[in-house]
Amino acid sequence: MTDFQSVHGAAPAGVWAAPGRVNLIGEHTDYNDGFVLPIALPHSTRAAVRLRTDGLLRLWSEQGDGRVTELDVAGLAPGAVDGWAKYPAAVVWALREAGHQVGGADFWFDSDVPTGAGLSSSASLECVVATAYRDLYELDLGAADLALIAQRAENAFVGVPCGVMDQMASMCCAEGGALFLDTRDLAQRQVPLDLAGRGLRLLVIDTRVKHDLADGAYAALRAGCERAAALLGLPALRDLDLAGLPAALDRLPAELQPLVRHVVTEDARVEQAIALLDAGDLTGLGPVLTAGHASLRDDYGVSCPETDLAVAAAVEAGALGARMTGGGFGGSVIALVDADRLDGIAAAVTGAFKAAGYAGPRTFTATPAAGARRLG
Ligand code: GLA
């Protein structure tokens, strides 16, 4: 393990952290102006940072190739940076695009957010950079402003047309709660989620099937939703409710119907989940999760054999409910379980993967952690 001093030759001005996330419910709703309910993970990307005055961005990662990536801030442009360095570069570019007079810096990164696992490792990297720059350059930007800058960085510089959930989760989540977010106006409420106090655990199962949102499938789904909203004369699918769904489906071409059905029922599931949590009925959340997975599998088409197997094996072994989380095409599954069944359920999923000839999944329990912050 290196440290900032040995890479950059001086002490850092400070250290920041920004977490990854799992989404409890509300998948593929954020780019439809809908609702989401993520929690921040205890896993985070940490950055030690010191500003530079020569306009250079010098980036080092403990998970990198052992070399410093050096970039000229003034020359940053979409498409000009490859690999992990494009995420911090994108944020600096997006801040400058938004009119903030920011220059270079030395960065040392270390992350324990699994990559390619649907747990928002890239958003955590973007958000730690945004937060450090806000503090060091004394920018008058709030957490949601920084999330929007990070989303723009990912959309326009990295080239992934994601919604705002991951960046909002990494910036705005609070310890011990889930973030109920309306992605239309970014209205938010912290919803207490005392899983341990109810004898429950949230098991995360990383299937180790790498997902890659840049591969075009995500963009095609987003475009399909936008086309459906336009055909229905709505600003976004958020503006359709369960009561209006059957009539709306009749007006749409067959290939768009399942997409719309997922988005509308998923928004309703978020509202159902909120009502359950507000009523203190945490176990009632289980069937809502499992129904969400069926919708992502059957209507939205973003699950895969490994995520389907993890959900089925967890539920069969006694989980209260389970679903894939994040964009899909691999990645991770969450399962809500009684604490005393945690080990048995994790073992059952691992056994099912072995029997199917899949590589072993990585499992851990998630407790709702804090959003982006300065550590020192
Ligand atoms: C990815 C995107 C998010 C969101 C989810 C699906 O994580 O980055 O914006 O669309 O997929 O809910």
Can you describe what's shown?
This protein is α+β, with helices and mostly antiparallel strands and 376 residues long. The protein contains eleven helices and 13 strands. The chain has helices at residues 4-8, 86-97, 121-136, 143-158, 165-172, 217-232, 245-250, 257-278, 285-300, 305-316, 342-356; strands at 14-23, 35-36, 38-51, 56-61, 69-72, 105-111, 177-182, 188-192, 200-206, 321-325, 332-338, 362-365, 373-374. The strands form three sheets. The protein has a six-stranded mixed β-sheet with strand order 5-4-6-3-1-13. Strand 7 (177-182) and strand 8 (188-192) form a beta hairpin. The longest helix is centred in the last third of the chain and has 22 residues, at 257-278. The radius of gyration is 21 Å and the shape is globular. The mean pLDDT is 97. Alpha-D-galactopyranose (GLA) is lined by residues 27-28, 30-31, 162-163, 165-166, 213, 326-327.
Low-confidence residue ranges:
none
The portion of residues forming beta strands comes to 15-25%
Please report the number of helical segments.
11
Distance between the termini: 19 Å
Q: Report Rg.
A: 21 Å
Name the assembly state.
Answer: single chain
Beta strands, count: 13
SSE map:
Blueprint: H1 4-8, E1 14-23, E2 35-36, E3 38-51, E4 56-61, E5 69-72, H2 86-97, E6 105-111, H3 121-136, H4 143-158, H5 165-172, E7 177-182, E8 188-192, E9 200-206, H6 217-232, H7 245-250, H8 257-278, H9 285-300, H10 305-316, E10 321-325, E11 332-338, H11 342-356, E12 362-365, E13 373-374
Parallel strand pairs: 4-6
Antiparallel strand pairs: 1-3, 1-13, 2-7, 3-6, 4-5, 7-8, 9-11, 9-12, 10-11
Bound molecules: alpha-D-galactopyranose.
Alpha-D-galactopyranose (GLA) binds at residues 27-28, 30-31, 162-163, 165-166, 213, 326-327.
